[in-house]
From TrEMBL:
<dbReference type="InterPro" id="IPR036953">
    <property type="entry name" value="GreA/GreB_C_sf"/>
</dbReference>
<dbReference type="Pfam" id="PF01272">
    <property type="entry name" value="GreA_GreB"/>
</dbReference>
<keyword id="KW-0238">DNA-binding</keyword>
<feature type="domain" description="Transcription elongation factor GreA/GreB C-terminal">
    <location>
        <begin position="82"/>
        <end position="152"/>
    </location>
</feature>
<feature type="domain" description="Transcription elongation factor GreA/GreB N-terminal">
    <location>
        <begin position="7"/>
        <end position="73"/>
    </location>
</feature>
<dbReference type="InterPro" id="IPR006359">
    <property type="entry name" value="Tscrpt_elong_fac_GreA"/>
</dbReference>
<dbReference type="InterPro" id="IPR028624">
    <property type="entry name" value="Tscrpt_elong_fac_GreA/B"/>
</dbReference>
<dbReference type="GO" id="GO:0006354">
    <property type="term" value="P:DNA-templated transcription elongation"/>
</dbReference>
<keyword id="KW-0805">Transcription regulation</keyword>
<dbReference type="InterPro" id="IPR023459">
    <property type="entry name" value="Tscrpt_elong_fac_GreA/B_fam"/>
</dbReference>
<dbReference type="InterPro" id="IPR036805">
    <property type="entry name" value="Tscrpt_elong_fac_GreA/B_N_sf"/>
</dbReference>
<keyword id="KW-0804">Transcription</keyword>
<dbReference type="Pfam" id="PF03449">
    <property type="entry name" value="GreA_GreB_N"/>
</dbReference>
<comment type="similarity">
    <text>Belongs to the GreA/GreB family.</text>
</comment>
<protein>
    <recommendedName>
        <fullName>Transcription elongation factor GreA</fullName>
    </recommendedName>
</protein>
<keyword id="KW-0648">Protein biosynthesis</keyword>
<comment type="function">
    <text>Necessary for efficient RNA polymerase transcription elongation past template-encoded arresting sites. The arresting sites in DNA have the property of trapping a certain fraction of elongating RNA polymerases that pass through, resulting in locked ternary complexes. Cleavage of the nascent transcript by cleavage factors such as GreA or GreB allows the resumption of elongation from the new 3'terminus. GreA releases sequences of 2 to 3 nucleotides.</text>
</comment>
């Protein structure tokens, strides 16, 4: 059975737009590349044709992969509990490095540079099911880091 992915409405819309882009504009671009490459003659030794065929295969596999993710998504509820960290929670935490803000998201939406951490990551897992005021220790490649959950939104 395929793995279920948790995702926000915004994340789901982003995936659907990406699939649509791959099915329309990207397919058209690749079709033109194939057409131009065929016009060059002998296909057995035509690097442009082979590259376009590879791009086509990659594009089609990406469409299949994203459609599979979309089929297996579970939407993150917007009305989740505000007193316990769950997928979809925005949290403020304190550590020796200062105060940080994270949003707990599914792995498809994770983007640490934007403060979106996966519920499957060591950091995300550590915060789940905790309350404001709880202190958590997370093992990182650089050693253990202690966090205090300041606020859950």
């Amino acid at each position: 059975m395929p793995k279920q992915e948790f995702i926000s409405e915004e994340g789901l819309e982003k995936l659907k737009k990406e699939v649509q882009e791959l099915k329309t504009a990207k397919r058209q671009e690749i079709a033109l590349r194939l057409q131009d490459a065929k016009a060059l003659g002998d296909l057995s030794e035509n690097a442009e044709y082979l590259e376009a065929k590879e791009a086509q295969a990659f594009n089609e596999s990406k469409i299949i992969e994203l459609e599979e993710v979309i089929r297996n998504t579970v939407l993150i509820e917007k009305n989740h509990k505000k007193n316990i960290v769950q997928i979809g929670s925005t949290i403020e935490v304190k550590s020796k490095n200062g105060q940080e803000r994270f949003v707990i998201v599914g792995s498809e939406e994770a983007d640490p540079l934007e403060g979106k951490i996966s519920n499957e990551s060591p950091l995300g897992k550590s915060f789940l099911d905790h309350k404001a005021g709880d202190q958590i220790e997370v093992q990182t490649p650089g050693g253990a880091v202690k966090y205090e959950i300041v606020k859950i939104g």
